[in-house]
Each structure stands twice: as C-alpha cells, then as structure tokens.
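Pilot study result, target chain (476 residues):
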Amino acid sequence: MASSCPGPGAWRATGRRHFLQTGIAGFASLSLPQVLKLRSQQTLSASETTASQKKKTAVIMVWQPGGCSHIDTYDPKQESGSEYRGPFSTISTKVSGLQFTELLPRQAAIADKFTVLRSMQQTAGGHPAGSMQLLSGDPDTRDKPKPRYPDWMTVANYLRSQAEPRQNPLPAYVGINPPLEYNGPAYLGDAYSPFTVMGDPNSPSFSVPNIGLADTSEVTRLGRRSNLRRNLDTLERAFDQRAELAALDEFEIQAMTLLTNPRTKEAFDLSREDPRTRDRYGRNSWGQQLLLARRLVEAGVEIMTTSLSGALCGRVHNWDDHAVNHHVFDALQFRSAAYDQAVSALIEDIYDRGLDKQVLVVVTGEFGRTPKIEYSPSTGAGDASAPAGTIQPGRDHWPRAFSNIWAGGGIQTGRVIGATDKRGEDVVERICGPGDFLATIYHHLGIDAPSTMIRDFNGRPTPIVDHGKAIPELMG
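Predicted structure:
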C-alpha cells in the first residue's frame, strides 16, 4: 500500500498543484511554518537519479479504460467456434496478410502506418491491478486503492525535468480526461502529475482554466502577488542556508507563464484548427481529444494521455463489456465509428505533419476480453444494453492475451508482432509483458530504463523497470 509519508518531490507537489489551481496568489498567504514544512519535505536531489540526455521526443497514449476485445478488433479468430467468434466479419488491411474485423475499416486502410502487437499479456485480472501492472510495472495481482509505484508518465516527467530545465511555457505532461483512476505519482508526489484537462473538447462551452489570461489588470495583480511572495521568500532564506527553497521560484515561473503567456491559450484553442481537420478527426469528444493531443505535442508537450471513455462507450461509459454492462457486440459497434475515425486521423496526421519520428502513439487498454462469450442478464437499459433482466452476450476480463497498436516514434510500421492461439486465449509467439511495454516507451523518451532508479518512500533506490526490455521492432 502507498505510504502516507511525504515522498520525493512532495513539497513541490503542494506548490505546483496549488499554483495551477489557484494562481500565484496562494503563495502570498504562506506562513513561515508552512514554508518550512514545504522545504523539509524535499528528500531527493537530481544527482540521485540517472537519465539519458533528454531528446525532443513525445508520447501520446490513447487509453481504452476497461479493456478492448482483441478478438473483435485486431486479432480476429474466424476459425474458432461460435462460442468464441463474434458476429463481425474480417477485412483485409493495407498490409498483406493482416486482417482486422469490419469494425475498423479506416485503420485497416492505413495499417502500413502502424504496428500491431498481438502478444501482450499480464497477470492481474482486476482493473486497478491490471492498470498498475501495465502503466507502472507493479507485479502485484491484487487490486489496491492507491498505486505503490509511479506510472510511466509521472516517472518520465520527473526524470526529464531533472535532466534539463524546461523552456517551453506549456506543461511537459498533459492529460485530457486522463487515466488517473488507478494510477498516479505514488512516491514521486503530485508535482509530476499531469496538467489535467477535463470535459468535452467538442462542446462549444469547452474551456481550459488557468491558462492565457487576457485581462491585463489581472496579470498585473498576479505580478504584485508574485512580488509579495518573493519578499516572503527573501525572509525565509535567512533560515535556508542550503537554498532548498529555490525550486519555489521554478514553480512560480511555470505557473505565471501558464497563466499569462498567450502561447498557452493558443495551444489549447481548437478553433484555430482548419474545420476540415476537425471534421477529419470527428466532431465528437474522442475525435477532438485526439486532435487536441496532436496539437499539444506539436506545441511542445512531451507526455500526453487521454482516455476514450464517456457516453461514446455505451451505457457504463467504458470498455468493460461484461454482459451485465453491455451487449458486447452492440457496444463495440456503437463505439467503433468514432474510435476508428479518431485513431486513424491521429496516426495519419502525425505522419502528414512530419511528427512521425518525434511522436510515438500507443493505443491500449489494461487487458483484453475473454475469447469465450458469456451470457448474463443486463443490469439496466441504455446505449448498447438491453433492458434490465434481458440475457445478453458479454466478454469478461482477460489479461492472458491482448493487442495494442503503435505508430510514429521512428519505428518500422506495417508489421505484426507476436501471435495468440487459434482461440485468442494465450500468447504462442513473442510474449510481451508490462516491463517490455514500459521499457519501449522509455526508450523512445531517451530514458535508459534498465539503469535508472528512483528513491521510494523509504529512500530505497527502486528501478523504474525491474524486468523486461524494449521491444526491438518498436525501437525507432
């Protein structure tokens, strides 16, 4: 279980998150004891970590919360029996010999621009543990209320921030409706969590708070509050012989920049995109989330996460297609058009705009769904679900085998890595686990995963990947 003790960067968490939520004014109200408390919580210096030289690379992870059925998308099994095979026919793709189901015609048409990994597996059957295994490398199969290890997004943000001061006014790590339900910074502290954007970017009322203030009088007022905080800081440095409060300046600058730099507002402003581009992604929440993700990495954001959840998923707003939640095949069909359009548009756009060496796109969930179809009564009517009590088909959790797709990142595309058996139950070729998944992402970000360690709550050096290695075919 995660300790309640302050971890590395915990004092930074308080400062940064407070800034991003309430602006500079918050620090003007800090008392001496509060400032000293913040100072005392810093427990890790940059010299205690190892990271390779930062590269100008970025990752967009598109998350399918609940887990996507590999059988009904990227790994169809037409030769399996009716107990396993879904109702969808297969279609050929741009890659010779590679087939998807009919739900993915747009992705099939550009399959030469990404690689399908069909041999992912992990060992946790629950959503919390499954997500923690894949995104942080935690081997525990038990569901926990809080993560024990920081997820790769937080780790990458932390290591890169230690390696080189950030010059771009935008945050390095942004999450658009991000997958934070089961994952997070753990012992790194919230200072390295994402700048979180919630809501529907397709909505006319969509806005991002705490960026690009247009009111010059408000900017001036914040500047005065900032000067007041500096005066306080000067006073406190009499008690700070080691200059441990220096990072307060860093977070103040970041917050002020985010609030006042016009570039930040522009980067989040989808109205600046060509309407035809917005149409290409789809005029819905998923399409505009992925367009905003592309827009932000192009502007300099390095770590982007976004979850494809909500009403476009069906009644329960996720991909957890148990029969009690959804009619699995109705649900897949219900969400397939928006999913197929948004993902294919993102991948094409990355290549069209010359970002394919810089930006790696990963589309995945925490596990697959059971190859064998199960039947249970629905617990409620809604999109993709029959009225309560109606027996309908579903697929349950399946960590033993699942698929994900990878694009950009300078990798060779138009490939298939690994294979499952004739029913899609188990991996029979090129098993890839969470450690391999994580090491591959870290490699793209210029982080030497095998030799990089971070101190945990107790000060113990902890590897960011303690098993697995980068997948050669996915190394640009």
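One observation from the pilot: The radius of gyration is 23 Å. A full batch analysis is planned for the follow-on phase.
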